[in-house]
């Protein structure tokens, strides 16, 4: 740390906001480059893993994909899926190993451009300035609950998935889970396995096989190059950043989730949630469409793997063709929650980020940060740990190390360029 001339506040070359795995990974690489920095974490390391996940939570991707910088998974089950407490231990062990300059319990409340050109950072621990600021807070700030949820009668409990802990934490009765992203389907299964009667509002999330032709699907996809495909080369372009991840689970050793099978086991399926009027729950007529589209993605992944196996002459066991085990007779459009015995609703329709504390012109009209591989057009401002920052693995343990190393290198280059320019401007003119 050093103090700039005429600057009354502590100054760092880099301030990192967020002490999770992404922010700590950047710190690791900045330390290797001897760049002065500090990491502000408003809670404590691994807080979201520890406090914002349900009891039975586990990774969806296998443990071998946990590759923090120079700190890969070192357990005895690389094909398994770490449970919540194990994830916390992994991140905490990484933080301890790198000994980052970490300040926990410090909230960053405001970032703006100062008159001197550097970034002014207001925190709960005082004022700081920096030449560069890395935002590593993730995109899960504000739980999404639709406005019409306020129409639900008070006697029906409603929570967001971030508040869910276990089936026993909900009142007795039947449960409606809204959303079929990774959280929604896993909460549905958690409740179903506990013997609760579950209703599920099915969205448009795609699904994936877990095991196919004798091997874990993510291993096939890794070999196929899906994890190396960059945003610049993706056929969907920037739109892929907002695409919902495929649903499957790592529970009990990992398995795929076919909602049609759950329907056969008694889970009631509906289309996307549309509205609530009193105890009347309204759904869109898209259940059949959403199930079919999820299956289309599932089958397409299988075909990609089949093609790769054939092209490379790989000896792999054959699989029977996919078939639908259940079809809805119709798309139910309304349900009387009281008549059905639904006493609680779990909203699992995601989150939205909150960057209102960053007073810099680096966002689009929807409030999404604009960047190229984490580098914004606003000098000195960077993002990391977001889905498709550069690759599919950018928002996961798999791709963070590469992204962090790249950002640290960019920052180093800019620091060296600024120092060179300063030296040149101070050099006396030759006569």
Automatic annotation (TrEMBL):
One of its GO terms (molecular function) is monooxygenase activity. It comes from the Bacteria. Pfam families: Pyr_redox_3. Keywords: Oxidoreductase. NCBIfam families: MSMEG_0569_nitr. This is FAD dependent oxidoreductase. It comes from Methylobacter tundripaludum (strain ATCC BAA-1195 / DSM 17260 / SV96).
């Amino acid at each position: 740390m050093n103090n700039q001339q005429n600057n009354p506040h502590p100054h760092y070359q880099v301030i990192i906001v967020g002490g999770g795995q992404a922010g700590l990974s950047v710190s690791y690489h900045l330390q290797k480059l001897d760049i002065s920095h500090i990491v502000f974490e408003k809670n404590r390391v691994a807080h979201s893993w520890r406090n914002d996940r349900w009891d039975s939570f586990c990774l969806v991707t296998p443990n071998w994909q946990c590759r923090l910088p120079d700190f890969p998974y070192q357990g005895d089950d690389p094909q398994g899926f770490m449970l919540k407490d194990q994830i916390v231990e992994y991140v905490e062990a990484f933080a301890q190993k790198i000994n980052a300059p970490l300040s926990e319990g410090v909230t960053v409340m405001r970032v703006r451009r100062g008159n001197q050109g550097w970034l002014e950072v207001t925190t709960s621990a005082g004022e700081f300035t920096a030449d560069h600021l890395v935002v590593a807070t993730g995109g899960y700030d504000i739980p999404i609950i639709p406005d019409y949820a306020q129409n639900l009668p008070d006697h029906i409990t409603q929570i967001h998935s971030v508040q869910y802990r276990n089936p026993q934490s909900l009142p007795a009765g039947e449960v409606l889970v809204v959303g079929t992203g990774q959280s929604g389907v896993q909460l549905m299964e958690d409740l179903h396995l506990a013997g609760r009667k579950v209703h599920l509002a099915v969205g448009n999330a795609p699904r994936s096989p877990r095991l196919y032709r004798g091997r874990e699907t993510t291993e096939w996809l890794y070999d196929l190059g899906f994890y190396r495909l960059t945003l610049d080369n993706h056929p969907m372009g920037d739109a892929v950043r907002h695409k919902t991840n495929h649903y499957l689970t790592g529970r009990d050793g990992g398995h795929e989730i076919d909602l049609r099978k759950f329907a056969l086991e008694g889970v009631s399926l509906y289309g996307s949630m549309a509205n609530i009027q009193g105890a009347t729950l309204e759904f869109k007529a898209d259940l059949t469409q959403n199930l079919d589209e999820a299956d289309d993605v599932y089958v397409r992944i299988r075909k990609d793997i089949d093609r790769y196996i054939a092209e490379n002459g790989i000896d792999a066991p054959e699989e029977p063709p996919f078939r639908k085990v259940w079809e809805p007779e119709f798309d139910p459009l309304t349900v009387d929650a009281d008549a059905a015995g639904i006493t609680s609703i779990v909203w699992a329709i995601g989150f939205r980020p909150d960057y209102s504390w960053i007073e810099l012109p680096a966002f689009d009209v929807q409030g999404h940060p604009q960047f190229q591989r984490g580098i914004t057009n606003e000098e000195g401002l960077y993002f990391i740990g977001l889905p498709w920052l550069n690759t599919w693995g950018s928002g996961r343990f798999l791709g963070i190390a590469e992204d962090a190393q790249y950002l640290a290198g960019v920052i180093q280059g800019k620091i060296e360029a600024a120092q060179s320019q300063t030296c040149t401007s101070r050099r006396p003119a030759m006569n």
